[in-house]
Amino acid sequence: MSSKFFTNKESNSLFEKFKGIFEYQNVSCFDALVGYFRASGYFKLRPFLEKVPEIRILVGINADSLIAEAKRKGQLYLENPEKTKEEYLNFVAKDIESASYDSETEKSILQFIGDIISGKVQIRAYGQKNLHAKIYIFRPKPFNQHTLASVITGSSNLTDSGLGTYDNANYEFNVQLNDFQDVKFATDEFEDLWKDATDLIPADISKLKSKTYLGDEKITPHDLFLKMLVEYFGDSAIRDKVGSISLPDGYTNLQYQADAVTEGFHKLLKHNGFILADVVGLGKTIIATRIIKKYIDKNGYNTKVLVVYPNALETNWKTTVRDFGISNYVDFVSNGSLHKIIEGNSINYQKPEDYDLIIVDEAHKFRTSSTTMYGLLELICKTPRATVGNDVDRKKKVILITATPLNNKPEDIANQIYLFQDSRKSTLEGVPNLQSFFADKIEKYKKLYLIKDHAELVSKVREIYEPIREKIFSELVIRRTRADIRKIARYYEDVISQGMTFPDVVGPNKIEYQFSPEQELTFYDTINAVIDQLGYYRYRAIEFLNPEHAEIYDNAQLISLQLSTIMKTQLVKRLESSFRAFKKSLYRFYISNQRMIEMFENDKVFIAPDIDVNKFLDEGREDELEAKIEELNAESPNNQIFKASDFSEEYIKGLLKDQEVLLEIYERWENIGEDPKTKKFIAEIKKSFFDKKNIEKKLVIFSESKETVEYIAEELKNIGREDVLAISASNSKQRFATIRKNFDANYPEKQEDQYNIIITTEVLAEGINLHRSNIILNYDIPWNATKLMQRIGRVNRIGTKADKIYVYNFFPTSQSNDLIKLNEKALKKLQGFHSAFSEDSKVYSEEEQLIENTLGNLQPQEEVDERLQYLEIVRELFEKDFQQYQRIKKLPLKSRVGRFAKIKSDVAKEIISQSLENTVLCYLRNKIKEGFYVANDKNCVEVTFYQAVKLFEATKIEKSTAVFENHFDAVNNAVNQFKKVYNTIYTVEDYDTSNLSVSERNAVLFLNSLKDLKRSFPAELSDEFIEMIDASLRIIYMGVFRKFRNEISNLASKQKKKKMPLEKVISEVNQIMNRYPIANIARLDALRAEEENQPKVFEEPKIVITETFA
Prior knowledge:
Number of helices: 42
CATH superfamily of the domain at 268-480: Tandem AAA-ATPase domain
Domain Helicase C-terminal: 677-859
CATH class of the domain at 268-480: Alpha Beta
Number of strands: 27
Pfam families: Helicase_C, PLDc_2, ResIII
Radius of gyration: 37 Å
Shape: elongated
Structural class: alpha/beta
GO molecular function: ATP binding; DNA binding; hydrolase activity
CATH topology of the domain at 268-480: Rossmann fold
Distance between the termini: 59 Å
Strand order of the largest sheet: 1-7-6-5-2-3-4-8
Organism: Soonwooa buanensis
Strand content: 5-15%
Domain Helicase ATP-binding: 265-423
C-alpha cells in the first residue's frame, strides 16, 4: 500500500514526487513557501517548470537576528521592506559564493536570475517573522473541487539536499495531500503571506548579480593582482593607527616602528609569539615595550611580564620600561639567573605559571637546546598560565628579540621557535609538524662541508633556507633592514623628516699581513700540531677510565670529545688573534698538561667533568672558559680521586706524547719575533684609520681575546696614544658611563673626547651605542658569524652623523684558511643568515652574496624583503586611493579573469619549469589553511605566496581575455588537492604520533612499557601516576618540552643498562616529571577533553580568485 509520507530514502524522495506530479498532473500554478532556497535546487526542477505559466516563490529571511537587534536598541521590531530585501539578496549572494564551482551549477544560477528578470518566476521575501514552514502547492486552472491539485508539506527546503537528488541527502519527513480542502487551506495561507511579503523586482536581481562573480563588471589582471594582495594581507594595511599610541617625551613615533608594533601584536595573538628581528640599531627595545603596553591593555591590569636579558642590556631595558610607565607590571631577570624563577623562592619573582608574557632579548643566546639555560627558559615559556585575563589562552605569549636569530645551523632558528611553538603541533598553516619540516634541512646542512665550490655552496645554502623563509619566517618573524626602509617611501620620508639618516656600509675592507719565512714555517708547523698532532689527552681523562669506573660518568666519551674540541678551537682562535694571546694560551696548556702528568706520578688523579661550557661561550667569556676548565680539572668539585692504575696505559702515553709536542711548539714560539699583524695595525693607525672619512676621529676595535685587547692597548700607548680605552668583562660595568660619554651619539648630556679609541672584547658587541665612531676594525674574525653582525651594529645606528660606515677586517693568513677552512665556515653561516633573514650589508668578504634572483653577483645590493614591498602596495592604495581600495576589496570571491600565457612565460619557467598554457592559477582558503595552486584538469602543484604573487602580478595596461570554458575541472583539481593536504595535516589526529626522533621513540616506548605494567603492579602504579604518564606522552607527541623527552630517553637507556627495580624507576620518573608542570598540564587536559572529543567539521575551501591562461 502506497504511503502519503516520504523521507528521501531510496527512491522515495521529494524530487521523485515533484517529477510525478509535473508529468502526470495538469499544473498551471506552482507556489513554493520555503525557509531556504538555493539556485541548485531550482535548477533540478527547471525542466519540469518549462510549461508552467505561473511560478511564485516565497522565501523567509533570518528575522530572529533583526528582532534581536531591535531589542538591543530598546525598539519594537517593525519590518522594514528594504531591510528584508537586503537581507535576502545578501543571503543569495553568499549562496552563490559558496555554491559548487562547475558548469552545471553556474548555468542553474544564471537560469534562475534570467527567469526572474524575464518575469517567468516571481519571488518575494517575508520579513515579519521567521518562516519555518515548507509548503509546495500544485494547482491547475481552473482550481476547484473537481480538478486534481496537490500540496506537499514537511521538512524539505528547496535545495539539493532537501530534494534528495543525491545519495546521503538529508533525511526529511514530508507528506503529499491531494484533498481539495487541504490544498485550498494551504493556498489561502500562502496568499496571506504573499500579500505581506516584499517583492523582488528584476532590477533587484540585476543588482544581486553584480554583487557576485557572475556580474558584468570588467575585471582586469591588475585588479585581480590587487585583490590577491588585499585578501592575503587582510587588515595589515589599515592597522597603522592601532600602533600609533602616544609615546613618552624623548621618543619619536617612527612609522616603521608603529607598523612593527601592530604587526607584532597580531602575530603574538595568532601564534602565541614571534621573533622581532629588525637589524641592529632600528629600535627593537622600543617596539617590544610598546607591544608590552598594548598587551597589558588587552589582557587586563593583572598582567605580569618577564623580561629576560643579558647583563649588558639591563640599564637600557629598565630605563625604557620606566619611561613607558609600566614598571609595576614587569619583572627583569638576567640570562644567568633564570633558575631563581624555577626555584620559586625569591621575593623578586613570580612563579613560572604566574607570568603572561615573556620577552627574551638577544634570543640567539638560546639557540642550543642542550644547554641548561635553554632548558630553564623553555620551562618558563611553556608552563601554562595559572590564571587568564581577557586573553583566555592558557599558553603564554613570547617575544624573542634578536638582530641575529640564525647562528650556525637550521636547528638554531628551530630551537628559538620551539620556545613558543610546540615542535610537533604548531599553529602554522601548512606546517603542523615543525620538527619534521626542519629535519631534512638539518641533514642537508650537515653535508655542506663536502662542497668545495663557493658558487655551489651558496646555491645549496639557499636551497635549504628559502623554504624556511617562505613557510616559517613569513608568519613568525618581523624583520626590516635599512634597505627595506629606504625602499618604502613612506618609511624613508618619515625618517628623513625627523632629521635621521641611515648610513651606507663601505666594506668590509681587507687588511692582510705577511709573515717572515721563519714565521711562516713555524706557523704552518704549529697549525699542523694543534690540529693533527695534539691529542688533548689532558681533557679526556674520564674517557680512559677502566671499565669498573666507567659508569660514574655518563657520556664520558662525548664529554671528553667536547672538552678537547673546545681547547683545540681555542688554540686556533688565539693563534689567529695575536702572537701574545697564543703564547699565553699555549703556556697555560703546557702547564696544565704537566700538572696532570704529575698527578699520575703522585698516584692521585682528580677529575671534574661537570662544566657549563655553553654558558661561557654564549656570553663571550672565552678567556674565562679556558681558566675555568683548568680550575675545575684541578679542583674536582665532584670529589672524585683516582689512582694511576684506574686508567688505561694508553692515557699516560697520550699525555706524555702531548707534552713533547707542546714543549717543541713552546720553544719555537719563544723566539717567534715581532707580530706582523701588530706591525700592520700600527701602520694603519698612522695612515688610514684617522683620515678625513673618520667624521669624529673615533675608532672602535673588537677582538675575541682579552689578552689581545690588553696587548694592542699597550702597543698604542707605546706610540703615544693616551686616548685608548680597553674594555673587557672585568671592567665594562664600571666604565659604562665613560663609554657612553665618549662614544654614544645619543648620549643626552655633554659628550666627551677623553677617549677616541676603544678596544673591546665581545662584551660591548651588544646593548650599547658606539656610533660617534663610523670606523670599526675587527682585529680578529670571530668564528661565530653573528658576532660580526652585532659588532657592526654598534656603530651603524640611528643617530650617527656619518653618511658612511667603514668596516675593516684583519684576514687570517692563507695557511690558516687552507687548514681550518675558516673562510668556508664563515661563508656557510653568513649565507644561511642572508637567505633566511636578509641583511643590510656584507660583513665578511666580497665573495659573500645577499639573496638575489641570480647567483654569482660578487657586488651585491642591499637585500629587501619582497613581502614588505607587496604589503606596501596595499597600504599605498589604502592611503592614496581609498575609493579604488574599496572597489578592489568589494570584488566578490570567485572573481576570475583570463590572461595570455605568454605574458608570464619566463616567470612560469622559473617557478614550475613549464608553460602556463591551458592552466589555472587559484587562490583558495578556509579558516585554517590557505594555498595557491597552478592546475590543469590532470595535474596540480601548490606554490608559495612568493611564487604566486609573481604569477598574479600584472601591469595596469594588461588586457584580459576570455576565461576558457573547460577551466572548471582544473579549478576543482586544485580544490581536491587543497582538501587532500588539509585532511592529511589537520583532521587525521590532534597531533602527529609518527615521525618520531630516536629520543622521542625511546621515551614513548619506555613510558608505554610502564603503563603496560599497571595490571601486574596496580599498587605501585597508581591511577594518578598513569594520568601523569598520559600527560607526559602528549607533551612528547606535541613537542612541548624538548628537554623532557631527552631526560626520559636517557632514563630509558639507563634502565636498559642497569635493570633498576620498579620502585626505583617510578621514583626517577617522578623526579623528572616534578621538574616540569606535568600535573598542571594533566589537569588542563581533563578540562579540555570533552571539548576536544567533539567531531571535527571540515570547512570547504573558498575560491578567492582564479586566473586562466590561454
